[in-house]
Amino acid sequence: MKLLIQIILLIFCIQTYSSAGESGELPGQEVNNIEETFEEIPKEQEGVDVSNVGELLDPKNTNIDLPKNRLLEIFNQYFLSELNNEINIIKECENIIDGGKCYVVEPTKSSNHFNNYHFYTNSLNQVYSIIAFNDMKQGDLNKCKDKIASWKEYFNSFDLTEKENDNSLNFILTDAPQQNTLEIFASCYTEEYRDIKSSFSIKFFKNT
Q1: Phi then psi for 172, rounded to 5 degrees?
Q2: Integer Cα distance of 162 and 29 in angstroms
Q3: Where are the alpha helices (DSSP H) in 141-197?
Q4: pLDDT one-digit tens code per residue, 98-154
Q5: Residues 6 or more apart whose Cβ sits within 8 Å of residue 125
Q6: Alpha-carbon distance 167 to 144, whole Å?
Q7: Rounded to an integer, what distance in angstroms lies between the CA atom of residue 130 and that of residue 183?
Q8: Residue 191 and residue 131: Cα distance in Å, rounded?
Q9: Parallel/antiparallel/unpaired status of strands 182-187 and 191-193
């Protein structure tokens, strides 16, 4: 019985380690419901000595502080890499830097929080910036606050620190002092610039 419990604890620790830093599902991502099946738990056989179960199950300090991974990709697109060839390019948009381009795309991994995705490339055709935004007028700011909170929780799985936080309607994150620092700006405020008109947006900018 003692050996069985040790094996279960070992499996739990391995699973915990393997899940650290994984991106998982995006907030608002549509996923297919997969019906899970479970085998019937075998009944405990008679005659098994369980008198020391309480001692074996006494709380023990099994917390493991695992390092967090950098955020290397979002919407199934890696930063400072060429455009994912599975992405559907709709049209070009207004560029930010000389020698670069901007594409309105349909990413292969998206969130229902946004209805527009702009991917920006540099002169080497590498994606260095992504802006995901929703141009629909918001009727309830509390819903946008919930979106902000869900994305903040999602990013908490990565090696990111909060750079600035005025209120619950926006946040700024960075992975400094890492090389080629990534900065993330999320906002529920209405914005209008270049060819973008947004009521909720998240901007990713990779310094090169």
Answers
A1: -130, 130
A2: 24
A3: 141-155
A4: 999 999 999 999 999 999 999 999 999 999 999 999 999 888 889 999 999 999 999
A5: 82, 83, 101
A6: 12
A7: 11
A8: 12
A9: unpaired
CA distance 77 to 107: 8
**Cα angle: 46, vertex 50, 52; to 5 degrees:** 165
Nearest by Cα to 186 from 158, 163, 159:
163
User: What does the block give as tokens for 17?
Assistant: 């380690």
Tell me the sheet residues that pair with 170. Answer: 187
Closest among 24, 174, 172, 196 to 117, alpha carbons compared: 196
d(Cα 69, Cα 22) in Å, to the nearest integer?
A: 8
- DSSP summary character for residue 109: S
149 contacts: CB under 8 Å, gap ≥ 6:
168
How far, in Å, CA of 119 to CA of 107, rounded?
10
| pTM of the predicted protein model | 0.72
User: For 47-190, where are the E strands, in sequence order?
Assistant: 73-74, 77-78, 88-93, 101-106, 116-121, 127-134, 161-164, 170-174, 182-187
